[in-house]
Amino acid sequence: MRTHKVLSRSVGVVLLVVGVIVFAAQFDLAEATVGQPAQDEFVPLDSVPPEDQLPAAPLLVAAYALLWIAVVGYLWSIWRRMVAVERDLSDLAGRTGES
Q1: Among 38, 66, 74, 77, which is least packed by CB within 10 angstroms?
Q2: CA nearest 32: which of 51, 47, 18?
Q3: Do residues 19 and 58 touch, judged by C-beta distance below 8 A?
Q4: Backbone angles phi, psi at 75, to 5 degrees
Q5: Which of the 8 DSSP states describes residue 48?
Q6: pLDDT in tens, 37-51
Q7: Which whole number is the average pLDDT over 71-95?
Q8: Which long-range contacts (CB under 8 A, 24 or more apart) does 57-64 make?
Q9: 48 lies in which domain range?
Q10: In contact, 96 and 27? CB cutoff 8 Å
Q11: Interatomic CA distance for residues 57 and 25, integer angstroms
Q12: pTM of model > 0.70
């Protein structure tokens, strides 16, 4: 049960850090677009500075990181539960005299 508490706290801390990163990235993007006038016409991608070509990249990276952290945490949780079930089954087999 102690590992469950440590795992849940670790996942909570990771989610908090990812949330702060996502919030900071959104705040920076919103701050950068406040002083710019609205576009009236099409601007080719070649004439846009590299930092403005994909402004959602930090959010995309944070979303994928969060997804992979959740998947790895879920698989680790399943693995731990399967170890406990196998241990219980081996204890039960030992008590009943089966091998």
Answers
A1: 38
A2: 51
A3: no
A4: -65, -40
A5: S
A6: 666 777 777 777 776
A7: 95
A8: 58/21, 58/22, 58/25, 59/22, 59/25, 59/26, 62/18, 62/21, 62/22, 62/25, 63/22
A9: 2-96
A10: no
A11: 9
A12: no
Percent of the chain at pLDDT > 70 equals 71
16-23: average pLDDT: 74
Angle at 71 between CA 65 and CA 77, to 5 degrees: 135
Backbone phi and psi for residue 33, each to the nearest 5 degrees, phi listed first:
-90, -10
Structure-model confidence comparison of residues 28 and 59, the more confident one? 59
Reduce the DSSP state of residue 49 to 3 states and report it: coil
Q: How much is the pLDDT for 13?
A: 76
Q: How many domains does the chain have?
A: 1
Residues 82 and 68: their CA atoms lie apart, in Å, by 21
Q: How far apart are CA 37 and CA 58, in angstroms?
A: 23
**Exposed / middle / buried, residue 62 (Cβ in 10 Å: 0-12, 13-18, 19+):** buried
Question: How far is residue 65's CA from residue 18's CA, in Å, rounded to a whole number?
Answer: 8
